[in-house]
Design goal:
The chain has one domain. It is mainly α. The chain is globular. It is built from 9 helices and no strands.
Length: 216
């Protein structure tokens, strides 16, 4: 298996897919972490009045726990940052797995098909990232892991991916803070603001990718 993974890691398209997946998963956690750190609810309305077996009631209970709510938020923020940094992506993938697996099991406990689909895709994406870094993780997973092989291609380790990841990280934090802080008064503006942010992120991603492909 390790030889197969090592061979696949030399494919530039898969390298780009992996880098982008780290950005995507990291962004999802960073975006979701800010309101928890600031002590905001996940649901727009309090869920205390809903059924005790509902997902809204469960989130309300975690929100009322306060310290645990903040703890989850900081955990998501750190895991997301590590993934988006690319440099510490292996550690980020491990940290991400512990959190997303917990979220996945929670969604299985409640009837919420749409959320279950999202968490399932996030978990599968995270497993892919763990397999991608198997040459490092095998030392904690196998009793006799043999030798370490650095099979990361030069394209995937360029510093530009770290710089882009930091740009995304701080951009998402600022975007989420703007929405939570009600800096945008009109109801339709926050949606447009999110779309504008997504477009800017996509444009920077496209420009970076084209530049790196052209670069010798």
């Amino acid at each position: 298996m390790e030889q197969l993974i090592s061979k696949l890691k030399q494919n530039r398209i898969l390298q780009l897919f992996t880098i982008s997946l780290r950005y995507l998963l990291g962004t999802s956690f960073v975006y979701a972490s800010v309101f928890k750190i600031q002590g905001k609810r996940f649901m727009p309305e309090p869920g205390a009045s809903t059924g005790i077996d509902s997902l809204a009631h469960f989130f309300e209970a975690m929100y009322q726990a306060e310290i645990y709510w903040h703890f989850i938020g900081w955990g998501q923020l750190i895991a997301g940052f590590l993934l988006m940094s690319q440099v510490f992506s292996t550690l980020g993938a491990v940290a991400f797995f512990t959190i997303v697996l917990n979220i996945f099991v929670i969604t299985l406990s409640f009837e919420s098909t749409s959320i279950q689909l999202i968490t399932s895709l996030m978990l599968l994406g995270n497993i892919y990232l763990l397999l991608w870094d198997w040459n490092k993780l095998k030392f904690i997973a196998l009793p006799k892991p043999q030798n370490y092989l650095d099979d990361n291609a030069e394209f995937a380790t360029r510093r530009v991916w770290t710089h882009l990841g930091l740009f995304y990280f701080f951009g998402v934090v600022l975007l989420r803070n703007a929405m939570i802080g009600n800096l945008l008064s009109a109801k339709s503006v926050p949606i447009n603001f999110v779309l504008l942010g997504a477009v800017l992120m996509l444009l920077t991603w496209l420009i970076t990718v084209v530049t790196q492909f052209v670069k010798k």
